[in-house]
TrEMBL record:
Domain of life: Bacteria
Keywords from the UniProt entry: Glycosyltransferase, Transferase
Pfam families: Glyco_transf_9
Comp. bias intervals (Basic and acidic residues): 288-309
InterPro entries: Glyco_trans_9, LPS_LOS_Heptosyltrfase
Gene3D superfamilies referenced in this protein's UniProt entry, alphabetically: Glycogen Phosphorylase B (3.40.50.2000)
Protein name per the record: Glycosyltransferase family 9 protein
Region (Disordered): 287-309, 326-345
Keyword rRNA processing: no
Keyword Transmembrane helix part of the UniProt annotation: no
Origin species: Streptomyces peucetius
């Protein structure tokens, strides 16, 4: 698959249409399910219905043949899918739990439909990791799926900042944004200890990233992205693959670090890491401070202010977590020895 978001039509092969019209992190948590489909139906063309801006990311998984542009505001379901040609041999709903996400697939009259909330489907579980949920769905329909099979291949291009600590202060909702001044304090401490620190920014996050870099007194080239759209995905992927570690909230770049085997520190607030966090590996650290009786989703993941559980995470905790990461030997390959991580003071 090329990075093009255009779907030129059929190829004569039977086709699988997968609906996952969400964000980067959602795509990456679906990798085990996509891999199960690829292995279980190798003769099929696998078409992913997802936002056009994810075309390069979908291609980078090595699992998707084509991307069918599909999107809706927020996390809503697209009202219709611009499908061309014969009906899909198989349609798979990896988007939601009910009839809203199943309906646009059913309208295409696929020969088979795999989805929750239909008579032959397993029961939906709210308290289940996103990777497990979709693998369990496919298992129900006879396709072996391993939630731990989540790796994507490292890119061939070179990192623009090899060995750097990558900080990503943004998220698609304020509820998952740790305060900028705390990111700046982490960046300043790491930089003073001799680490190269870069701050990444999505299309609308340039001001936030520049604020973090400015408060931390980083070099002018420390901000990557934030102007003219998202960071090109091959550049972002190379940056993460070659990083010392990634520090971010529960957002797409954290899931990219998981998929590439890059050490990471992920900050959780409104949603428990057992639902969206990385697998339990020594090079992934998660920070979360729920109340004693907190449910798996104690807050609003799409709220307009930082979640109170996220605000309980301190600068020193983040620095301690970075300090605890192994310096070499991750799934992404051996990494050079790094400077010691200082205290926040």
């Amino acid at each position: 698959m090329t990075p093009s978001a255009e779907y030129p039509g059929g190829t004569g092969r039977p086709r699988i249409l997968v609906l996952r019209a969400l964000g980067l992190g959602d795509l990456l948590t679906a990798v085990p399910a996509l891999r199960a489909l690829r292995r279980g139906r190798p003769a099929h063309e696998l078409v992913l219905a997802a936002p056009a801006r994810l075309a390069a990311a979908a291609a980078a998984t090595g699992l998707v043949d084509r991307l069918l542009p599909a999107a809706a505001p927020g996390r809503a379901v697209p009202a219709a899918l611009a499908w061309a040609g014969p009906a899909p041999d198989l349609a798979v709903d990896l988007h939601g739990s009910g009839p809203e996400s199943r309906r646009p697939l059913a309208r295409l009259c696929p020969r088979r439909l795999y989805a929750y909330a239909q008579p032959d489907a397993p029961e939906w579980r709210d308290d289940e990791h996103e990777r497990d949920r979709w693998c369990r769905l496919l298992e129900r329909y006879g396709l072996p799926a391993d939630p731990a099979d989540l790796a994507v291949p490292a890119p061939a291009v070179a990192s623009p900042a090899p060995g750097a600590v990558v900080l990503h202060p943004g998220a698609d909702a304020a509820a998952r944004c740790w305060p900028a001044e705390r990111f700046a304090a982490v960046a300043r401490a790491l930089s003073r200890a001799g680490h190269r620190v870069v701050v990444t920014a999505g299309a609308a996050e340039g001001r936030l990233a520049s604020s973090v870099a400015g408060r931390a007194e980083l070099a002018q080239d420390a901000v990557i992205g934030g102007t003219g759209g998202d960071v090109p995905f091959d550049v972002l992927m190379a940056l993460v693959a070659g990083a010392r570690c990634v520090v971010a909230g529960d957002t797409g770049i954290a899931h990219l670090a998981t998929a590439l085997g890059t050490p990471s520190v992920t900050l959780f607030g409104p949603v428990a890491p057992r639902l969206w966090g990385p697998p339990p590996r020594p090079y992934h650290r998660v920070l979360w401070h729920p109340d004693a009786d907190d449910a798996p989703r104690p807050g609003d993941a799409h709220g307009d202010r930082p979640d109170e559980r996220l605000l309980r995470i301190t600068v020193e905790e983040v620095l301690d977590a970075v300090r605890a990461l192994p310096p070499t030997g991750t799934a992404a390959g051996a990494r050079p020895a790094q400077a010691a991580v200082p205290s926040a003071g």
